[in-house]
Amino acid sequence: MKKLLIASIAFVLVGYLSISGIAYVHDKDYAERAVARPAVSPQAFGVRDVLDRNACYYCHSRKAVLPNYAALPGIRQLAEHDRQTGLAYFRIDSLYGALESGMPAPEADLAKLETVVNELAMPPKLFRLVH
User: Fold this and answer.
1) Are 109 and 92 in contact (CB under 8 A)?
2) CA–CA separation, 79 vs 74, rounded Å?
3) Nearest CA among 65, 68, 73, 74 for reference residue 30
4) By the 8 A CB rule, do 94 and 109 touch?
5) DSSP for 88-105?
6) pLDDT per position as a tens digit, 45-99
7) Beta-carbon contacts of residue 82 (< 8 Å; ≥ 6 apart)
8) pLDDT range class, residue 131, cuts 50, 70, 90
9) Between the CA atoms of 107, 113, 119 and 121, what dihedral angle is there, to the nearest 10 degrees?
10) Is the pLDDT of residue 122 over 70?
11) CA nearest 86: which of 110, 112, 64, 56?
12) 19-40 burial string, b = 16+ CB within 10 Å, else e?
């Protein structure tokens, strides 16, 4: 019984660390590609940096490419729920478009972004656990 408990704990721990490692590599790769994209102004770069650093694109963009582990049973349902909820509250595609084109970003989007950054409301705790 004790061996089964230890094996179960080890299995969960290895699984968690593996998924966290894959998430880290995926997020790091995305961040490196994002930094390489030119920004039209220092302000645009700063806003985009906040979005990229917190991986807002996963849940708030229809264009997001999720990591491979997001297809695993259980994680797939959680990721889909988070995306549907995130898209219902805020979509960053137009904000990214404005930042890349040099057009002024929508004030409502900037206000929402400022609020969640100041309140540390995003990303959710469960997302932070893995990423």
Assistant:
1) yes
2) 9
3) 65
4) yes
5) HH---HHHHHHHHHTPPP
6) 888 888 887 888 888 988 888 877 788 888 888 888 888 999 998 998 888 888 8
7) 58, 59, 124, 127
8) low
9) 140
10) yes
11) 56
12) beeebeebbeebeeebeeeebe
Given a cut of 80, whether residue 27 has pLDDT beyond it is: no
In angstroms, rounded to a whole number, what is the distance separating the alpha carbons of residues 25 and 11? 21
Query: What six digits make up the tokens of 113?
Result: 């972004």
Global pTM reads 0.68
Tell me the two tokens of residue 126. Answer: 């469960």
Q: Degrees (nearest 5) of the Cα angle 34, 40, 41? A: 100
